[in-house]
Amino acid sequence: MRQSPHGVSIHPNAAALIDATAARLITKLVDVQNRRGEVTVVLTGGTAGIGVLAAVAAAPARTAVDWQRVNFWWGDERFVAPGSPERNALAARQAMLTRLGVDQARVHEAASTDSVSTVEEAAAAYAAELAAAAQAEDLAEGFEETDPRLPRFDVLLLGVGPDAHVASLFPEMAGIRTTGETVVAVRDSPKPPSERISLTLEAINTADEVWLTVAGEDKAGAVGLALAGAGPVQVPAAGPRGRSKTRWLIDQAAASQLPEQLLQPEERH
Ligand SMILES: O=C1O[C@H](COP(=O)(O)O)[C@@H](O)[C@H](O)[C@H]1O
């Protein structure tokens, strides 16, 4: 693994990236639990994101985490039936949640087409659930105030699409431009399914740590542009910033168009 001083870790291939990210996530969850008792993680869909969850569920070190005291949210969800293979939450349940005996009351899945009739209703319900969790935290002691509309997110995982989308915030579309809201409804996603809900960039950037986990050459252009300082409206992956840390966890193929200045001299070709 190569580490750049800019928060970019480059792994030799997708499998190594996924295993290393899973190990890092377990360590992070344990650290926060040791300090505060419970920990909140925001999950992502996508190939690498779900791969990481499967690797966590298979890692011997998983037993170091108290899975009953982990709160789960999602950065985005597809507005489809709950049993649809398109559903990010279903993929996460199959890869990890059902295998670890998590507390179901702490799993905050967005509404599906079975429970509400429009994607706007699903977005509003998710925003309300986030706000209620934030209020409950305020009543508990020891929580540092971040955004009154959102619970504290200790670590927020994101994938990146080949078009540089993160969560369900797509280039040049309304979602990535939205301010003043924590959750947006998306009706015209260029990647199917068309109806989705997503945290806004404003909400994502309340997280203490944001980790962008990306593998594959088809993502190299998006990663290169994001790290070269592109604007988030054109390149949504350029927008996420954790309050304490922003980590880019990528494989060699996804790193192939990284700006030269992000690499140590000995890493330049
Ligand atoms: O649609 C989505 O895509 C992205 C990235 O997915 P990938 O398969 O290209 O890795 C994912 O981060 C997001 O959660 C998901 O809804």
UniProtKB/TrEMBL annotation:
Q: Which GO terms describe its biological process?
A: carbohydrate metabolic process; pentose-phosphate shunt
| Presence of the UniProt keyword Hydrolase in the record | yes
Is this entry keyworded Repeat?
no
SUPFAM superfamilies (alphabetical): NagB/RpiA/CoA transferase-like (SSF100950)
Write the record's keywords in alphabetical order, separated by commas. Answer: Hydrolase
The residues covered by the Glucosamine/galactosamine-6-phosphate isomerase domain are: 13-248
Q: Which family does it belong to?
A: Belongs to the glucosamine/galactosamine-6-phosphate isomerase family. 6-phosphogluconolactonase subfamily.
InterPro entries per UniProt: 6-phosphogluconolactonase_DevB, 6PGL, Glc/Gal-6P_isomerase, NagB/RpiA_transferase-like
Q: What does this protein do?
A: Hydrolysis of 6-phosphogluconolactone to 6-phosphogluconate.
- Pathway(s) served: Carbohydrate degradation; pentose phosphate pathway; D-ribulose 5-phosphate from D-glucose 6-phosphate (oxidative stage): step 2/3
According to the UniProt entry, what is the EC number of this protein? 3.1.1.31
Catalysed reaction, written as an equation: 6-phospho-D-glucono-1,5-lactone + H2O = 6-phospho-D-gluconate + H(+)
Q: What class of enzyme is it?
A: hydrolase
Q: Which domain of life is it from?
A: Bacteria
Q: What protein am I looking at?
A: 6-phosphogluconolactonase
> Where is the organism placed in the taxonomic lineage, from the top?
Bacteria, Bacillati, Actinomycetota, Actinomycetes, Micrococcales
Q: Name one GO molecular function term.
A: 6-phosphogluconolactonase activity
